[in-house]
Each structure stands twice: as structure tokens, then as C-alpha cells.
Design goal:
About 35% of the residues lie in helices and about 20% in strands. The protein is an alpha/beta fold. The chain has a 7-stranded mixed beta sheet, with helices on both faces.
Length: about 200
């Protein structure tokens, strides 16, 4: 798993107005990873994204983990594809080593699912990334935010902040998601699925 860097993209919307929204959980997870690796985000010269470069985790056997490019697009969610594609091209990273962290309403809050490929489930950020990369065959860490209550529109729900009770549990969820990203990069998708899907 040590050959070549990973591009880890955390999805969200830019600016303080959206920072606490469910839709921005991808940004939140990348902040955890940056803190964990002691790296800082900076504006990228060739892409609309804030980027931090680091090594993530430890490989089986004790060697340092792979290089990762942590990226938070500074565009709005539904135009995440351009920055993702530009960064993949800039760093020479294929879709097989692109990992996208995003909110998922079809998964209960406080749960994670991981997969490579498949549909986008109505998620506009993923749809734009698939279009820009020309493939759906990239890895996703899907962070459960639960379904909207009653008849609330899904778009309104994901653009609201986490509830008070959710905020108490959110730090652990973000750590779990960061751990899942690290495990994919160091041990592979199947190992990470085995750990996190068994807990769902």
C-alpha cells in the first residue's frame, strides 16, 4: 500500500455560514486528519482547494504510512469535481487512489460505510466528482448523518447544523471516520470495511 500518494478529499461548502452543517462533515474529518499529522492547510496554486500534505499512519511492519494530499475544495459542494480532478492531475494520482469523505443521509448518524464505485445516491458533490474524473471508481468514506425528520427536504436538512445531542457524539464520529481513512490508506479497503461495517 506504500506506492504513490493518496488524494483525500473532504466535501463541504466554503465559509463560516456552512461550517457546522451536516453537509460539511467531510471538511471536519479532514481537519482531524490535518491535526493528527501536524499539517496545515494552505491555498493550492493550481486548484480551488485548501491542501495539506503529510504522511498518514503506520504500515503493517512499522514503516511510515503513505503520503497523502488532504484537500478541502473551496468551491461549493456541487462543483467539487473541478478541484478534485485538478489536484489528481497535478499530483499524478489515479482514481484508484482518490478517497472522498462525505455526508450520507442513507446511513444512520454515528455510522460509517466504505465503498469503491457505485452510484452517487443523489449527492451532488459526488456526481460532479464522478463526471470530472470520468469514473465512479474512487473510494468513499460515507459518514452517516441520518435522514431528515418528517417531511423536511433533504437539501434543507443537510444544510442545517448538527443537533445538540448529535454534537455530543460528533467528535467520536469524526475520529472514527479519520481512522477509517487512515486504515484504507495503510491496510486497504477490505480491512477497513471489515472493521467499520461490523460495527454498524
Amino acid at each position: 500500500m506504500a506506492d504513490g500518494p493518496w488524494l483525500v478529499v473532504g466535501l463541504g461548502n466554503p465559509g463560516p455560514r456552512y461550517a457546522g452543517n451536516r453537509h460539511n462533515v467531510g471538511h471536519m474529518v479532514l481537519d482531524v486528519l490535518a491535526e493528527r499529522t501536524g499539517s496545515r492547510f494552505a491555498k493550492h496554486p493550481r486548484a480551488q482547494a485548501a491542501v495539506a500534505e503529510a504522511r498518514l499512519g503506520v504500515l503493517p511492519g512499522g514503516a511510515p504510512g503513505p503520503r497523502v494530499v488532504l484537500a478541502k475544495p473551496t468551491t461549493y459542494m456541487n462543483t467539487s469535481g473541478g478541484p478534485t480532478s485538478a489536484l489528481a492531475s497535478y499530483y499524478g494520482i489515479g482514481a484508484d487512489r482518490v478517497l472522498v469523505v462525505h455526508d450520507e443521509v442513507d446511513i444512520p448518524f454515528d455510522s460509517l460505510k466504505l465503498k469503491t464505485g457505485g452510484g452517487e445516491g443523489g449527492h451532488n458533490g459526488l456526481r460532479d466528482i464522478s463526471k470530472a474524473l470520468g469514473t465512479r471508481d474512487y473510494t468513499r468514506v460515507r459518514v452517516g448523518v441520518g435522514r431528515p425528520p418528517g417531511r423536511m427536504d433533504t437539501a434543507d436538512y443537510v444544510l442545517k447544523d448538527f443537533s445538540g445531542s448529535e454534537r455530543k457524539e460528533l467528535p467520536m464520529l469524526l475520529v472514527d471516520a479519520a481512522d477509517a481513512v487512515e486504515m484504507v490508506a495503510t491496510e486497504g479497503l477490505l480491512a477497513a470495511q471489515g472493521r467499520y461495517h461490523a460495527r454498524a
